[in-house]
């Protein structure tokens, strides 16, 4: 490696093999209980829980450690209403034909439609933005690298952090998502909406589509060579 400032790795914990397997199996079991739902309770969720989960997302690896992401946590009823109205307008055109027949057929087993009441009902929405320029300091204006991959990793961390904290989530990606830039007051020249996460407690009528419970086997998703 090239010379660079560094410090010893002093917080790595090595476990015996049996405990490693146990911890891996426990994480698998926790992950298998994570489901995307579309009915949320309006029960309040303390801001500090969302803050801590976002901090966990901020530990994700990123290209050149530029951390090219910004999370807008939305609790305001007025802002959530604006987002719902804008998203449902797009979704109506999507379901009325813009998506194409093949895409709509793929969605049928999930039972989705243009109505998105959870955008207003859930206690928190988290808009995830990617950044073209930035760096390790907030005022840096350098080119960011592997932006899509980096923000995807951070979003995955955030979903798992919310799940492990005891909250249900849903990923929402209306296209185009430019309305989020305006509503959230973000820099349209540097930032692009990446995803909208809904977070909160499940509603009493929350269900899971049977289609969503079908997961590919290890042989189908992995090759060991």
TrEMBL record:
The keyword Flavoprotein applies. Keywords: Flavoprotein, FMN, Oxidoreductase. InterPro entries: Nitroreductase, Nitroreductase-like, Nitroreductase/BluB. One of its GO terms (molecular function) is oxidoreductase activity. Residues 33-201 form the Nitroreductase domain. It comes from the Bacteria. Gene3D superfamilies: NADH Oxidase. PANTHER family: IODOTYROSINE DEIODINASE 1, NADPH NITROREDUCTASE. This is Nitroreductase family protein. It comes from Pseudoalteromonas gelatinilytica.
């Amino acid at each position: 490696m090239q010379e660079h400032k560094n410090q010893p790795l002093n917080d790595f914990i090595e476990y015996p093999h049996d405990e490693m397997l146990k911890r891996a199996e426990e994480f698998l079991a926790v992950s298998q209980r994570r489901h995307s739902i579309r009915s949320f309770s309006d029960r309040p969720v303390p801001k500090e829980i969302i803050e801590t989960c976002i901090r966990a997302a901020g530990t994700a690896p990123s290209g050149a450690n530029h951390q090219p992401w910004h999370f807008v946590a939305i609790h305001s009823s007025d802002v959530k209403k604006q987002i719902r109205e804008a998203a449902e307008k797009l979704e109506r055109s999507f379901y009325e034909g813009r998506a194409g027949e093949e895409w709509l057929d793929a969605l049928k087993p999930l039972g989705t439609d243009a109505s998105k009441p959870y955008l207003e009902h859930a206690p928190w929405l988290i808009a995830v933005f990617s950044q073209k320029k930035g760096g390790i300091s907030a005022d840096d204006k350098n080119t960011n690298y592997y932006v899509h991959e980096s923000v995807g990793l951070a979003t995955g961390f955030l979903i798992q952090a919310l799940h492990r904290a005891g909250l249900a989530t849903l990923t929402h990606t209306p296209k185009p998502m430019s309305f989020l830039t305006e509503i959230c007051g973000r820099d349209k020249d540097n930032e692009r909406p990446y995803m909208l996460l809904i977070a909160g407690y499940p509603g009493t009528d929350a269900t899971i589509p049977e289609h969503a419970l079908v997961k590919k086997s290890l042989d189908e998703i992995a090759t060991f060579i």
